[in-house]
Amino acid sequence: MALFTRLISALRNRANDSAEFIEIEQQLLKSDLGIALSRQIIEKSKAISNQDVTTAIRSVLAGFMLTSNRELSKNSAGLTSYVIVGVNGSGKTTFSAKLANFLITSKVLNANIHMAACDTFRAAAVSQLKTWSERLSLNFISGADNADPAAVAYSAVKDVQSKYGDTSNHFLIVDTAGRLHTNSDLVAELEKILRTINKLTPVNEVLLVIDGSTGQNGLAQAKLFQEKVKVTGLVLTKMDGQGKGGIALAIENELKIPIKFISTGESATDLEPFSVDRYISRLLED
Ligand SMILES: Nc1nc2c(ncn2[C@@H]2O[C@H](COP(=O)(O)OP(=O)(O)OP(=O)(O)O)[C@@H](O)[C@H]2O)c(=O)[nH]1
Ligand SMILES: [Mg+2]
Fold first, then answer.
1. pTM
2. Which listed residue, 7, 63, 257, 286, has the most CB atoms within 10 A of its CB?
3. Where exactly are the structural domains of the chain?
4. pLDDT value at residue 227
5. Among the atoms of ligand 1, which is closest to the Cα of residue 209?
6. CATH (residue range 80-284)
């Protein structure tokens, strides 16, 4: 990505050329790091005294990320539920499918996945999730057109709990309609979905899906969203084919919520658990 190549070489050469540092800052800004963070990175980097500049920058960057656990939490005593939220078109439905695929193929043994179509506004949204569920052989649960999304979530949980005795290896992924934090009806509806599920089984994660290609805009939206709904993890989508790698650093530093996944394409396997080490290595690559 070569984002930090120039900074590393300026520091190695012990350049004290302020024009050079201003240009480097501009470059970081263009990479979606935001003004304050770009400046802080440069200031902290200038203070590096270590001979091994790359290692020192690596720890400067890591210092802006959280050290919290990025694994999904799970209900050991019964049905685990994950609710997927975010603005329109951010990639929620596609991520729901990717998450299901991730759980099936990851170390959770014999994971049974149930998909709840709680975006009941658009028939197309329901059929999109249905198609994914068929493709991945997942149990698909939906309600009538325009049904109350909380009612669909309720019957989904009830369905699974009544069909299976031990649900400790069962996961319910709840896809929701895109909404802006400014639409109070929709925010209230989301709160209702969460409350309803919580009465029957814990909501183990509320995952906020953010379109990473929208840069600082996506960050601003996520910030406002998070003030309304208690989000437990972030998912950055559309990170494929965009050279602006700084957004993950900026988002996590600002929201203080762990990024749990990065999505890099439209197919079910284009998902990776977020790793700070791997991410920073990519930022430092030539
Ligand atoms: N390139 C790329 N495209 C993606 C990625 N994730 C999702 N998409 C595409 O983005 C578009 C929107 O994705 P959806 O999953 O329908 O988004 P959504 O948030 O469910 O949208 P609404 O339900 O309308 O709010 C689709 O065309 C997806 O194929 C990604 O990581 N990379
Ligand atoms: Mg959708």
1. 0.94
2. 7
3. 5-62, 80-284
4. 85
5. 19
6. 3.40.50.300
